[in-house]
């Protein structure tokens, strides 16, 4: 079983390339950013104020705990259809809104919240490793900010995907034009890097700068790294 961990800042193309990589090898795919986004969406949905200054960390932690232990949260690890659900409602699109993008760092910055999500993410990876009944049992691609360093430092392939800030902002702005909410990547990276260090590769982690690479070239580089590990 191959575990592929991919970290990187906002707008680097982690989700699209990780998903394509998982599809290529018929591996499972876990978007951990979608899990943090779903938590922010759920808190807002429960009427919790996530704006700086008014943040009730304990209320957020309890609400996120209930989201997971109460069985409200579901995520599909099928790279062909990676849905996020809350109480049976598909929130995959809602979690990409600018309302969520601008508040997700407030939620992911709360350490007890991270502990809940890290445990859940490890459980998904472990489940793929042990359950033979899953069709994607040969491997999993998990992507986020702390996968190579905290969630799965023992992964067979660990990559830090990076790109220059102006390139990343341009990619996100392009996505916003196509329908995803506006996103200030620099502000989010600044807030996120207070809690997780994803701007520098950890020990043994391969850095791949895709500023001047096409999507296909980035994917090819990732495919080679996985092939080397198989
Ligand atoms: O990957 P994406 O940009 O969708 O992530 C949304 C947010 O989730 C990040 O800005 C960060 O606050 C949080 N996150 C995190 N740790 C991860 C993945 C995402 O803190 N492993």
From TrEMBL:
**A cellular-component GO term for this protein:** cytoplasm
Q: Which domain of life is it from?
A: Bacteria
Signal peptide range = none
Molecular-function annotations in GO? ATP binding; CMP kinase activity; dCMP kinase activity; GTP binding; ribosome binding
Query: Which keywords accompany this UniProt record?
Result: ATP-binding, Cytoplasm, GTP-binding, Kinase, Nucleotide-binding, Repeat, Ribosome biogenesis, Transferase
**Subcellular localization, per the record?**
Cytoplasm
GO annotations under biological process? pyrimidine nucleotide metabolic process; ribosome biogenesis
Q: Does the keyword Glycoprotein apply?
A: no
Q: Name the positions where ATP binds.
A: 8-16
Quaternary structure annotation from Swiss-Prot or TrEMBL: Associates with the 50S ribosomal subunit.
Instruction: Report the protein's function.
Output: GTPase that plays an essential role in the late steps of ribosome biogenesis.
Q: Which family does it belong to?
A: Belongs to the TRAFAC class TrmE-Era-EngA-EngB-Septin-like GTPase superfamily. EngA (Der) GTPase family. Belongs to the cytidylate kinase family. Type 1 subfamily.
- What is the designated name of this protein? Multifunctional fusion protein
């Amino acid at each position: 079983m191959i575990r592929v961990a991919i970290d990187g800042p906002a707008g680097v193309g982690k989700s699209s390339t990780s998903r394509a990589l998982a599809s290529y090898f018929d591996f499972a795919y876990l978007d951990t950013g979608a899990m943090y986004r779903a938590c922010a969406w759920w808190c807002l949905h429960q009427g919790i104020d996530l704006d700086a200054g008014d943040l009730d960390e304990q209320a957020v932690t309890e609400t996120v705990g209930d989201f997971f232990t109460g069985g409200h949260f579901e995520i599909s690890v099928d790279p062909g259809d990676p849905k996020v659900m809350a109480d049976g409602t598909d929130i995959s699109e809602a979690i990409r809104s600018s309302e969520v993008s601008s508040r997700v760092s407030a939620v992911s910055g709360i350490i007890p919240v991270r502990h809940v999500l890290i445990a859940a993410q490890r459980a998904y990876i472990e489940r793929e490793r042990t359950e033979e009944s899953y069709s994607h049992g040969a491997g999993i691609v998990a992507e986020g900010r702390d996968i190579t360093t905290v969630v799965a430092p023992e992964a067979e392939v660990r990559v830090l995907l990076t790109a220059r800030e102006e390139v990343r902002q341009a990619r996100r702005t392009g996505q916003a034009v196509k329908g995803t909410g506006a996103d200030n990547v620099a502000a989010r990276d600044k807030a996120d890097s207070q809690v997780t260090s994803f701007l520098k590769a950890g020990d043994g982690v391969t850095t791949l700068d895709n500023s001047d690479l096409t999507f296909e070239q980035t994917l090819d580089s990732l495919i080679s790294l996985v092939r080397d590990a198989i």
